[in-house]
Amino acid sequence: MVFVSSTIGKGESPMKMGLSTFGLDSLNSLIFNMHEFDLIKHYFTWTPVPSEVRLSVGDDAAILQIPPHEEFIISVDTLVEGVHFPVATPAHAVGYKALAVNLSDLAAMGAHPRWFTLALTLPAVNQTWLEEFTRGLRELATEHQIFLIGGDTTRGPLSITIQVMGTAPKHQALLRQGAQVGDLILVSGNLGEAAAGLAVIQQRLNLAHEDAADCIQRLNYPSPRVELGCWLRDYATSCMDVSDGLVADLKHLLKRSQVGAKLYHQNIPLSGALHKLNLSTALGLALTGGDDYELLFTLPQQHLEQLKQYQIVNQIKLSVIGEITQQIEQVSLDYPLVNLPDGYNHFQ
Questions:
Q1: What is the mean pLDDT of the chain?
Q2: Beta carbons of 180 and 298 less than 8 angstroms apart
Q3: How far is residue 270's CA from residue 253's CA, in Å, rounded to a whole number?
Q4: Any binding-site annotation on 59?
Q5: DSSP-derived secondary structure letter, 1
Q6: Is 344 annotated as a binding residue?
Q7: Is 176 annotated as a binding residue?
Q8: All structural domains of the chain
Q9: Does residue 121 have a pLDDT over 70?
Q10: Residue 289 annotated as binding?
Q11: What are the percentages of helix, strand and coil residues in the chain, rounded to 5?
């Protein structure tokens, strides 16, 4: 559907519309009489429209033209306030992250981003919040040249659902299956910073002010590795993104590929902030903390030189953290952590 349904702005009392959850500073920032279609036109009707979009916002559905010799790749994620981002998260960060986590899924498939839809549930129509949310959303969309083609708006607890669509050459998309015994295991960037940022917000971890700010920034503004994912199509044997924690996500890859993994703790990439923590705490955050949205992939050793050249040219941190083994679905670590849970699970 292309922004066709809403129950926002029916004149209910501000308290019933969840203003405290929505983070309003004053009732003056609430627009009671803004019609849904005015909201859509102002915030979510984007121009210029790409040539491959035959029909976009304003009708019952969008019409797209898929490039020849490419496959259509689709992913969807929902972000709920208080679950996927803390209640006080700035609107700009919410908009940015909502798209970033979906772009990360396309990156993990080696897909080129093209279009997305947005289903937005709001407790109230707040112009200031919407301006900042849209700005964060559009900044990242512009960077990755992905275009908003439609969606839905409704009233309720704050949540954002984005469906991203991308393309990749036929039969060349990256998959979780395909890792071979002897392949190297690699990750992009640093691990554990986002989990540390969340722990700081929840007052479970104390960091120096600058380190805390850096970790919270990583929590709010993940970097989808789209360009890396497209490059890896020619080299990686398997790939996925790290969203629920390295160990948990690695186990998904191992299950699909029917292999095992040996990890080297000294190779796990840690930021300066995490290096200041004791090793067990830092490794716990890096191995089981979620929200990294880095790429986890396997690579035959003969492609390591090409990878090093890519790393130098693109100035991206890529770390060999282990090796694929024959022990199906088993992860071994050369460091004795007392407790190594799998990672985040929405239903536990």
A1: 85
A2: yes
A3: 22
A4: no
A5: -
A6: yes
A7: yes
A8: 15-169 (3.30.1330.10), 184-333 (3.90.650.10)
A9: yes
A10: no
A11: 35, 25, 40
